[in-house]
Each structure stands twice: as structure tokens, then as C-alpha cells.
Amino acid sequence: MKRTIAVTVMCVAMMLMGAHVRADAPQSRCTRIGQKWVNFWNGHDVTKAFDVFTEDIVEEDVPTGMGMIVDGAEAFQAFAQGFFNAFPQSTFTLVKSSCSGQQGFIEWNWSAVDDPGFFGTGNQIDVRGVSIIAIHGNRISRNTSYWDCAALLTQLGQPLPCP
Questions:
Q1: Start-end of H helices in the chain
Q2: CATH 3.10.450.50 holds for 20-155
Q3: What is the SS3 assignment for 144?
Q4: How far is CA 99 from CA 1, 25, 88, in A?
Q5: Which residues does residue 11 pair with via DSSP β-bridges, in sequence order?
């Protein structure tokens, strides 16, 4: 009897502490947020931004260098539109996502054609990345992306190092 109570107490304690939910858990909150993120970037429609992101979104794309931070609705939509214009042939794939409370990550793969792109080479780009996110409700309020700049530049035949 004591053993049963102890196991039950441990199970309840683990549930109350919360467990990480991974993207492979069907229809988990993290999966939905990660898939909405991917769908936004694949949809090329800035008017859908605030279905995924909060209007006070802070976006940082670390590999582009020099602390480029996009802050707020208008700046984020301009950033996203610039990306869509630069990479009209672009696809993101969700690898996995995980969250705990109000923070998490989205691991992704990005495939695109560099036309007009970064250098207009017409080369195929395949890059792995991860976005560290802050979550407010079921939308992303901060998105900090890290991706493999060295792999990108190598695919484009450009000299290293990254910015």
C-alpha cells in the first residue's frame, strides 16, 4: 500500500512539474506552434503574421550579424516581406519543436534558390537552423534564429567567414 501511494505521489508530482512536449507528440501545443511558424514562412503572406506572432514580436536573425533585431508589428512585416521577395522559391520543414512553459525551440530545415536571394547565384540552398522562442498564449512573442551560415556560403561559392 505504501509503495502504491509513493508511486502515485511521484506521478502526480511529475505531472505538476510539467514535462517537455516534443513535436512528435500528436497535436501538442509545441507541434501546433512549430507548424504555424513553418506555415507562415512557407505561405509568403505577411498579413498572416499575427496568427503566429504577437504584434509586439521581437525577431533576431543572429547569423546576419551585428545584432539585427526587428521589433514590433510594422518592422516584422517589413522584414518578412523582404525575405519573401528575396526568396520566392523557399520552403521550411519542421524537424522538431519543444517547449516548457513560455519558452521553447523550433528546429527546421530551409531549402531555397538564391534568386534573387543573397547573391543571385541561382544555386540551391539547404540550411539547418533553430529558432529559440518565447511564447505568449499560443503565439510567439520573441523569435531568435540561428542557422548554419558557413554551409550557406559554401553552397553559394562565397568566401568564409560569416558576418
A1: 2-17, 29-43, 49-52, 73-86, 149-155
A2: yes
A3: strand
A4: 36, 12, 30
A5: none
CB 141 within 8 A of CB 134: yes
Separation CA 81–CA 4 (nearest Å): 58
Residue type, 123: N
Note whether 50 and 73 are within 8 A (CB).
Answer: yes
- What one-letter code names the amino acid at 65? G
Q: How far is CA 23 from the centre of its chain?
A: 13
Rounded to the nearest 5 degrees, what angle is found at the Cα of 108, between the Cα atoms of 106 and 111? 155
Query: pLDDT tens digits, residue range 125-153?
Result: 999 999 999 999 999 999 999 999 889 89
Domain boundaries in the chain?
20-155
List, in sequence order, every residue forming a beta bridge with 98; answer none if it has no partner: 22, 105
Grid cell, residue 100, equals 516548457
Q: If you average pLDDT over residues 8-30, what whole number do you get?
A: 48
pTM over 0.85: no
Which three cell numbers mark 59? 525577431
Q: Calculate the dihedral angle through the C-alpha atoms of 79, 80, 82, 86, rounding to the nearest 10 degrees.
A: 140
